[in-house]
Amino acid sequence: MDIEPSSLAATPGAPAPADTALAAELGRLLPAWLSRQGTLLAVKDVNSGAYVHVNEAMAQWLRCDWAELLAQGDAALDPPLPAPLRAAETHALQLPPDKPLHSEHRFEWRGEQHEFSVWREILLLPDGRRLLCSLWTDLAPRRRDQQRLRELLQQLEQQQRLNDELSRQGMNSGALDRSTGLHLRAYFDEQLERALSAFRQEQREFALVWVALDPPGTRSWDEPALASVRAALARLLRGNTRAADSTCRLDGQRFAVLMSNMGLALAYGRMEQLRRECAAQIVVSAGQELRFTVSMGVASCPHTAPEGGALVAACEAALAEAQQRGGNQAVLARVPFEPRR
Description:
Number of strands: 12
Helix content: 40-55%
CATH topology of the largest domain: Alpha-Beta Plaits
Distance between the termini: 91 Å
Mean pLDDT: 84
Coiled coil: 142-169
Strand content: 15-25%
Number of helices: 10
Structural class: alpha+beta
GO biological process, one term: negative regulation of bacterial-type flagellum-dependent cell motility
Oligomer: single chain
Low-confidence stretches: 1-15
EC number: 2.7.7.65
Radius of gyration: 31 Å
CATH superfamily of the largest domain: Reverse transcriptase/Diguanylate cyclase domain
Order of helices and strands: HHEEHHHEEEHHEHEEHEEEHE
GO cellular component, one term: plasma membrane
Largest sheet: 5 strands, antiparallel
Domain GGDEF: 204-335
């Protein structure tokens, strides 16, 4: 059975509504407010343990037939609620009506992770019955908001550090891309020539990587959103490379990395880590949460090719293959087969 709102209002020490009309109005407003807040409400009979009322949100979460809840209480739930929840309820039942219990619970139930703040309080009705009223607030939305705020603050801090670093360097607009802080193509080509020269003279191997932003999934990004994503990728590129390495923005949404004194296998492992970090990154732009992935082509000198033109062509071909496979992949450049003579 359901408990009348006027009965639930008769808690000792609380002022009673002036008349039944007001009690009825409050009884109408409370469920509407709880529904708007997404709060789960359950009322149990203390003696029998049976549910006497649940709101729609709680009924959907429990996913159990109402008649079974009314007759069996928590015994109708399969699987049963986790032990910490049952222990907190047992504790609440031992408290007097004017001593509510507030607790937070993080648990797994029915294969899903949950986190709730639960307010439990004993209600004493005029006829002597004792009811346990519990209000459940889902903390997941709040946690997501907190995570987004942390991500945004982290991005702001990283951008400020980048701005400070560029200021200390006396940034030359012809050498660095202002939007990402990465070197431009001309400087990168010079570094590639130096790496090739070091290989020819001292046999120093190096890896070359072409990186491209994948197109967004369901909707296109405007230029401010693209700029935010490019800046995030640039930060991840710097974070996953060494001081001896070179990073650059080639053009549009394409980037490059030159990793000195590094073989193909190790470079591929580093870029796989970067690819996973990109897929997990959250970018906040104009209040919107953006996610992005990248495609990569990985080559090395001399394993893939000993000459600059062939090495760049191999990188571009591997990048194109990664994009053709659907993106969010790092592909090794093909090694040319030379038959034995």
